[in-house]
Structure formats: structure tokens, C-alpha cells
Design brief:
98 residues, OB fold (Dihydrolipoamide Acetyltransferase, E2P), 1 helix, 6 strands, 5% helix
Length: 98
């Protein structure tokens, strides 16, 4: 007889605790540190232009659509005006770099 009990899990708790493999983050750990809300100001780089002529930037896996111009490569400080699931709309407050 073995002294280990039968279990259906692949790994025991001790094995996963002392594993050399990195911990897989939980979904809440992927969320942004700073919540994007209407009125908050952030700094982004415009990386693309959408079909309506708005600048497109990214902030922590969220697409930011910037009203008011801008070209690819501009660093701008924007103020969030509207927020949806994975998208936010913003207006330019100031240009930091062209």
C-alpha cells in the first residue's frame, strides 16, 4: 500500500506552491492600475488613424480614440470624455511631442 491518497488533481498543492514555473495571473490582475473614467487625464502616443480621422492610441489594453486631430507618432495628454467596454473617447488637452 502506498501512503499517498488517491486524488483526481494533476498536481498537489505542494507541487504548485514550490513550482519553478511562473504564476499565471488571474483576470483581475490584468486590469489597469488606473481606472479610465470620464474626466481622467492620461498621456498616450497616437499610433494609428481610424476611418473617421480620429487618432487611435492604446492604454492598458484599451483603445483610445482621440478627437481633435493629431498624427501618427504624436505624444498627447488627453481627457477621457466617454468610456465603453474596451474603448474610450478623448479630447486633446495638450501636445507633448511631435
Amino acid at each position: 500500500m502506498t501512503k499517498y491518497r488517491d486524488h483526481k488533481e494533476v498536481y498537489t498543492r505542494d507541487y504548485s506552491r514550490w513550482s519553478v514555473y511562473p504564476k499565471i495571473p488571474k483576470p483581475e490582475e490584468y486590469q489597469a492600475q488606473e481606472k479610465l473614467r470620464p474626466g481622467s487625464e492620461i498621456t498616450i502616443e497616437i499610433r494609428d488613424i481610424d476611418e473617421k480621422g480620429r487618432g487611435v492610441g492604446y492604454y492598458n489594453r484599451t483603445v483610445i480614440r482621440v478627437n481633435g486631430g493629431g498624427t501618427v507618432g504624436d505624444k498627447v495628454r488627453v481627457k477621457i470624455t466617454e468610456r465603453r467596454d474596451n474603448e474610450a473617447y478623448a479630447d486633446i488637452v495638450e501636445w507633448l511631442q511631435k
